Structure formats: structure tokens, C-alpha cells
Amino acid sequence: MKKNKKKNKTTKFRLNAIFFTVFVMFTILVLRLGYVQIVKGQEYKAASEATTTTKYTWNAPRGIIYDRNGKQLVENDPIYTLTYTDSADTSDMSTYDIAEKLAELVEIDIADVKDRDKKDYWIMKNSDEALEKVTDDELSKLEDKEIYKLQLERITDNEINSLSDAEVEVYKIKAILDSSSASVKRIKEGLTTEEFALVNEHLADLPGIDVKLDSQRRYVYDNTLRQIFGSIAQIPEESADEYTAAGYDLSDLVGKSFLELQYESVLRGAKEEQSYTQDRTGSVTDSVTTSTGQTGKDLVLTIDIDLQQQVDAIVQEELSKETTAEAAYVVMMDPKTGEILSLSGKRRDGSKITEETYGTIYNSYAMGSAVKGATVLTGYQTGVISPGDTFYDAPITIGGLKKKSWQNMGTINDLTALERSSNVYMFHIAMKIGGYNYSTKSGFRDPKTSYETMRKYFAEFGLGVETGIDLPSEGTGYNGGVQKLGNLMDLAIGQFDTYTPLQLAQYVSTIANDGVRMQPHLMKEIRDPNHDTDETGEVIEEFEPNALNKVSMSQKNIERVQEGFRRVMSGSQGTAASTFRGVSYDPAGKTGTAQVWNGSGYNYNLTLVGYAPYENPEVAMAVVVTNVRNGSSVINKNIGKRILDAYFTDEADQADDADQADDADQTANADEIEE
């Protein structure tokens, strides 16, 4: 009996313990539930309703570039660009892993991957084999850099060639991802439709990878003026702060050179920005456009593309015929406004002729007698000669060296000296400026002042100084410094200092424009974009003709040199008269031949400057043909005549078109009146 009572007490105690435990647990649960609902309720409610907002930007297309007649020169094609952004989110996955995945999705051009790059990749892939290429002794004595250098040197061609194209693609992608050029790297521009779809399908597995809508420049006339348009590229590292301060993203493409760089602020579009709101499931709940995009403004150039194509063809044909010439350049401009009508440059490269349009701006050469107009005007201005003064043209000896003209001309005045291109006449001007008495062989006590005087007046025409063209930079030629009297005499005939074709064009334009030096320019207008129609947009800004300076010489003396230039083209003994005599457009100009030492003898730079018509100039030109072995070649004159013929033929055709349009308008008006 006692045992049963004891057993019942034990059972009852256990049941009570269980009930008490359940009660405590239930109490804790109730308290916890209360805490969650009352204390943390608002916090959890907010969490359940939490959303994320992400801002996206879309690049706007750059402005279109037109010629002066409204013909499109540079357009935009939409493309997709594959990018990588390095951030904390990408740290969980190595750039090698990302590169491997991307190489399976897109095709990468590996033509620019060098053998040294492949060696780096081979070492990374084959670390054990690479380690075997150095001895234990070398490992113990050399530093890591020296060991790595030995490994590179000992990799064989067979080992390099063992890398597959797919592996090299991985290496190139990884190199881009690891580069420090910008936080956002461009991996590939111009994804195919298939690549675009594949990458988007795998974006969740590719941290840092994105596809951006971009635009790619398309050049309507292929390589024509391609170098002058310039290029666009990702923001360089050294300019990152400057561009980001101006609102750029580091992945943006910006003008890198020439016109694209010069007019970056004009051509650049304003980005469209949108904010997307997503809930916890990733569904978009709202989208707001925070900034509407705007295509870049359009740039209208002074270039006449029809004339440009003709000039390019002429230069190409003439350079092809004159097989001893190295290169040829042409600049055509309006002498009254400074508008550049055509820039052409071609260079012989073995059996091919390649584009070198930038040479009109940057390359400088000895220009020969083409600069004699500046020499004569300098002589007038310094008072060492007066219009009509004569010298006897015969060989002269300076410092034991004989200097002469291309032929002995006897007694000649300034006009004949220009017409027949007398060196000796220019030598006498230089000697007088230097204070040298040729009869007594004495003087020239202040060489520095003599050189400064010549260059000062040459600079008034644009020779040896910046022309002011609207490009990021330009060449200014070579200044030979202060030398002997003989070099000063060479300066007077274009055989000492060097000048660019553009400087030569500005010089002759200044003479044509009665001594007013105009700033040459390529921008004619800036217009609002209007790409929905064939018409260009409204004009925002026009380039106002800018007179840089008026030369010191009197109008009478300028007209004297203009007459000498006219005789060059049409006089009985003019050096270009056989080429230009009888043409309808009445040109004036000056030929030039400069000797160029080639190591064993002389080649020749053949030049020609000119303008037309003589009385009311519309166009000025400079032709420069370099390193011609055939000194009797007339390639400079042939190019000059053909490009002026092309200009005035085009002008006549345009006038005929305008007349026909006027006739059509008048007929239409008459029909309206009759109705």
C-alpha cells in the first residue's frame, strides 16, 4: 500500500513538472509574440514593405557632322557595349572566373595580343612548369622580379603556341578587367545580337558585368578627312578628375583628337536618367524619368565635300604618276573669311599611297621660293628696297660659297624678281637687312637683330607662328635660330626655316586679302539636332570671321607684290605661266623649289601658292610636294591647276543649278498667277 502511494506521488510530481514546463514555455512564447508584435512590429512591417531604388543612365548619341552644304559626313550607328565595373560586389568571384565565362559568350579580337602577354598567361596557367625553368640556386639567390624575367626568357615558342585562341581570349578579357585605367572598363564594343542575348541571359552569374547602349561613329565618305574628324575613346586615366567634375562617367566615350576633341562640349549629348523601384521579390513597382536625354548638337564644317573628294583624287593621281615624290599636301581656303574648303594629304608607303591629311596641319618643310612675296614686302617695310629698285642677278660668293639663281637674269626689278623667281634679288634684300655691304664684303655686325627682323615680318603673314586654326594643336614649323649671313640669305628664299602647308596657305591668303591675316577655321555653324527630317536644325552659333592682324606694309606695297604674283601665273616669263596662262579665273601666285639633302645628293620640295580671281579672290591654295628626286617635275603646278579648275567648275555648276531653281520658282509663280 505504501509503495502505491509513493508511486502515485512520484507520478503526480512528474506531471506537475511537465505542466509547469509547458506553462513556462507557453509564457515565453506569448511574451516573445508580444515583443515581436508590439516592440518590433513597425520595424518588421517596414522590412516587409522595403524596396530598392536603382538609377540607370543611357548615353545620348553624339552630334552629327555636316559639310558646308548640309551633306552628312559623320553619323552614329547604335551599338551595345560590354562593360565591367569593379566594386565590392565583385570580390566573391575572381576576374579569371569572369573572363572564362565571358569568353564562352562573346568573341574577342586577339590580334593585338603580343607574345609577351601570352608568356604572362602561360606562367599563370602553368605555375609548376614555370617554376621548373629556374634552378634551386637561382631561386635562392635572385629576387622575384629577376626570377620572373628568367621564366619569361625561357618560355619556348612551342609553349606559347600551345595556347589556344580561346585561352588567349580569356587572357585578354582578364587583362581588361584587371586594368587600372578606369573603374568602368569597356570589354567589347559592338556586341552581335546573339552575344547581346547570351550575356543578358547570364548577367546574374557575372558580377560587375553590364551591357550599355552606345553609339559608334560612321564615316559616310570612308577615309575622306577621317584624320581631321579625329577619334573618340574612353576617358583616359590622367583626365578622369577633369571629366568626372564635368558630369561624365568614367565609361563614357569622349573626343580624343582633332575635331571630336575640339568640339567635345558641342557634340556630346545629355544622358537620359531613370530611377527604377523594386520590391523584395525584384519586381519593378515604379519608374521615373529624372532627366530626359538630348542628342549632341550638330557641327557644320566649312569643308565642301564634293570639292574635297575631287582634290583627294587629283592628289592621288598626280602622286601616283610622279613616282619619285614622297608626299603631297593641299590646303584650300577662303582668303577673306578663313574658311577651310579642303585639306588633303597623301604619302607614298612602298607601293601604296596612304592618307596623311593631318600633315597639312603638323608637318613642316622648307618651302622654297613660294615665300619670296614675304621677303620683298619685308624689304619694302625695312626700307632696304623700294618698288622698282633693281639688282644685277649674277652669282655671288659668301664665305667661299657661290650662291645664285636658277639662271642668270641680269638687271631685274622687284616685279621681275617675283615673276622669274630670282634668288639673287632676295639675297640682296637679306644682306641689306643684315647691314652687309657686298661690295666691300663688310658688315653683318648684329646677326640676332637681322634674323629677328626677318622673322617678325614673316610672322605677320602666319609663317613660323600658330595660324589659330580651331583644332586642339597645330605645328608651327622649325626655327633654325641665329646663324651666319648665308643662312639669313637662305631664309629669304625659303631654304632655312620650315613651315606647314597650312601656314603657307595663310600666308598667301593674307597677300590675297590685302594684308589682313584671317584665322583659318573648320567650324562654320553649330546647329540644334533635327534628325527626324532631311533638314538641319536651327543655327545656334556661327563662326564669325576673325582678323588676327593687319600686316605692317602699305596697301600700295601689297598691291605691288600682288602684281608680281599675277605675272608668275600669266606673265611672259612667269614660272607658272605655261601651266596657267589663258585660264578663265585669272589667278596669281608663286612657285617654289627647295633643295633637301638626302645623304648623298639633293631631293626637292616643290611648292605652289596662289589665289583667284586676282581682282576679287574667292579661294587661296597651297600645294606642297615633298622629297621629289626629279627636280624638273611640274607636279606642284599640275595639282594647283587641276584643283583650281575643279573649284571654279563646281562653282559654275552650282550657279547653273541655282539658275535652274530660280527658273523653276518663276515658272511655278507664273502658274499660280495664271490660276
Automatic annotation (TrEMBL):
Keyword Mitochondrion: no
Pathway(s): Cell wall biogenesis; peptidoglycan biosynthesis
The organism's place on the tree of life at top rank: Bacteria
Main location (coarse class): membrane
Enzyme nomenclature, EC number: 3.4.16.4
Record keywords, A-Z: Cell membrane, Cell shape, Cell wall biogenesis/degradation, Membrane, Peptidoglycan synthesis, Transmembrane, Transmembrane helix
Family: Belongs to the transpeptidase family.
Subcellular location: Cell membrane; Membrane
KW DNA damage (keyword) present: no
InterPro entries per UniProt: Beta-lactam/transpept (IPR050515), Beta-lactam/transpept-like (IPR012338), PBP_dimer (IPR005311), PBP_dimer_sf (IPR036138), PCN-bd_Tpept (IPR001460)
GO BP annotation list: cell wall organization; peptidoglycan biosynthetic process; regulation of cell shape
Domain (Penicillin-binding protein dimerisation) ranges: 59-286
Catalytic activities: Preferential cleavage: (Ac)2-L-Lys-D-Ala-|-D-Ala. Also transpeptidation of peptidyl-alanyl moieties that are N-acyl substituents of D-alanine
Official protein name in the record: serine-type D-Ala-D-Ala carboxypeptidase
One Pfam match: PBP_dimer
Transmembrane segment boundaries: 12-35
GO molecular function term, any single one: serine-type D-Ala-D-Ala carboxypeptidase activity
Disordered as annotated region, ranges: 654-675
GO cellular component, one term: plasma membrane
Broad class of enzyme this protein falls into: hydrolase
Topology in the lipid bilayer: Single-pass membrane protein
Residue ranges annotated for the Penicillin-binding protein transpeptidase domain, each copy included: 329-644
